[in-house]
Write a structure and sequence with these properties.
alpha/beta, 6 helices, binds ribulose-5-phosphate, four-stranded antiparallel beta sheet, six-stranded mixed beta sheet
């Protein structure tokens, strides 16, 4: 199977996972990226079974609307049962690296509101130690050089993601060569640097369930020690 076929299979499985618990007045949080796009397309078939969605990016909002799904402002929502999103890496505790698509900040906000974060990914995303994928950090533009210097002090090798402006009007630094053995501490430390909006570690609020598309079918993993 190709990577796209694995992504589609896991997205379809995620729809089947939430389907029995969908209710007419429910709002579903939706992530960003190619796996999330497969999820949106599969979810759209069942759009009469829930009220609408909150989107983690302008791109996701556009795709949801194209399917005729109502998109709500998060500020109008008091609770959300599910948030479904992809990831760039996951460890066994379902700590994630996200932000390959530069949507990490809105993704982290929507995940914070949801009761259950279902991460959907192909099997290449499961790793023993996070950090082979460069860690995205969203930064206020005027703080770019300062934040880069501070990231070097933390042992990373930051690179400016050329030509990318986030939905929030900020820039992305991708931090290479960090072996992230304590994701909760690293997430907090980076977020304390003045000028950082947030970083792509989802460890303080990890996924609750990881659905992995593998050649042998979709495997559902629950976090250890969560
Ligand atoms: C976007 C993300 C995505 O979830 C992550 O990059 C995975 O993307 P894809 O599903 O295309 O592999 O965090 O900011």
């Amino acid at each position: 199977m190709t990577q796209d076929e694995l992504k589609k299979a896991v997205a379809d499985a995620a729809v089947q996972y939430i389907l029995p618990r969908l209710e007419e007045d429910m709002i579903v949080g939706v992530g960003t990226g190619s796996t999330a796009n497969f999820f949106i397309d599969a979810l759209a078939v069942h759009k009469t079974k829930f009220d609408g969605c909150v989107a983690s990016s302008e791109e996701t909002a556009r795709r949801l609307k194209e399917h005729g799904i109502e998109v709500y402002d998060l500020n109008t929502i008091s609770e959300m049962e599910f948030y479904i999103d992809g990831a760039d890496e996951s460890n066994e505790h379902l700590h994630l690296i996200k932000g390959g698509g530069a949507a990490l900040t809105r993704e982290k906000i929507v995940a914070a509101v949801a009761k259950e974060f279902v991460c959907i990914a192909d099997e290449s995303k499961k790793v023993d130690v996070l950090g082979n994928f460069p860690l995205p950090v969203e930064v206020i533009p005027m703080a770019r050089s300062h934040v880069a210097r501070e990231l070097v002090k933390l042992g990373g090798d930051p690179a400016y993601r050329e030509g990318v402006v986030t939905d929030n009007g900020n820039i992305i630094l991708d931090v290479w060569n960090m072996s992230i053995v304590d994701p909760i501490t690293t997430e907090a430390k980076i977020n304390q640097i003045a000028g950082v909006v947030t970083n792509g570690l989802f460890a303080d609020r990890p996924a609750n369930v990881l659905m992995l598309g593998t050649k042998d079918g979709v495997k559902t993993v629950k976090a250890k020690n969560q």
